Amino acid sequence: MLLLYRFLWIASALGVAAVMIMLSNPRAERPIVSNEWASVQQGRFSLQAPREFRAHRDALTQMGMNKPNSPVQLQDAVRIERGARTGMKLALVTLRTDLQVGSDDDAPAAATPDQNAARTLRRIHTAQLDNLREAYADLKETQTRPTRVQGAPALRTDFTFTLAHWVPLFNTPAQGYLITVPVSQTEALHIIAYSPPHQFQQYQPVYERMVSTLKLNAGATTTASGGWK
Fold this sequence. Notes:
Layout: H1 2-24, E1 37-42, E2 45-50, E3 54-57, E4 72-81, E5 87-95, H2 113-135, E6 137-149, E7 152-163, E8 172-182, E9 187-195, H3 200-212, E10 215-216
């Protein structure tokens, strides 16, 4: 019996030592996505995405762009997702001319075309943020700043939100951003990317690479300040 106890003690000690060695020499961290990327072609959109992501076409009605008083009309949309908490949504919209939205009282008397374009971009971006506040629970903006997408001027708003579940116990936090970029004199593109908060920094370069490969298949022209052909 004494020999059995001694054997078990030695085995336990060796097991603890093996665990300590493994913890002190961790394996290289797995990349957030593989190096295998594939072409995605859905409607007006063509881009590259990691093989772990799946593309889906839908009307994105949850984004609020079918409202009667929306300043834009949805042209096409696609979701490229890796589960419910990680992915990107692209929506191509056209500025509506059949209704007057907003006021031009604050416009400069001699506004330049670039100034008018910037005001229109802010209006479309703000309208989409309002839609997201209705679509996502507890959406909180953290920063809004100008940026550029493929050479075109754009606006980016970072935010946090909650993905609601019918059982509140399973509500999950998420982090993301909205980028709005003009692609022609009458069209704009919404880019909504999101992931779990603890993985957001890892997914950002993935989303940036996806956007850098994005092309619009037909109908878009280059704006004066940049954009797609």
